[in-house]
């Protein structure tokens, strides 16, 4: 039995669903960032799988995956910096307690 495109897409769907559930249901900002990273990795898996099985001679899926990884690293760095700044001011990272943008 060989691993086909369907297997990679099922894995990607499961990972994306887990990340989406975590991002929507959790209140901790760090856990939400980790769930967003899981969702981005699920997209990477599907991009590389489509590239491998649809157009194996072109590397478009791999190139897009590298761009997504760069964006994910940037998002994690900026997100963690914002969370650290909020924690220093509010001493909490629970998203329900962070309400300083309200009038």
Explained architecture:
By secondary structure, the chain is mainly α. It has one domain: Helix Hairpins (Orthogonal Bundle). Helix content is 76%, strand content 0%. It is built from three helices and no strands. α1 (5-25) runs antiparallel to α2 (29-54) and α2 runs antiparallel to α3 (60-90). The longest helix is centred in the last third of the chain and has 31 residues, at 60-90. The radius of gyration is 17 Å and the shape is elongated. The termini are far apart.
Radius of gyration: 17 Å
| Domain unit count | 1
- Whole-number mean pLDDT: 90
Low-confidence stretches: none
Tell me what portion of residues adopts beta-strand conformation: under 5%
Please report the distance between the alpha carbons of the first and last residues.
Answer: 60 Å
H and E order: HHH
Write the layout of secondary structure elements.
Elements lengths: L4 H21 L3 H26 L5 H31 L13
Helix pairs in contact: 1-2, 2-3
Question: Main traits of this protein?
Answer:
76% helix, 103 residues, 3 helices, Helix Hairpins, mainly alpha
Would you kindly provide a brief summary of this structure?
The chain has 103 residues and is mainly alpha-helical.
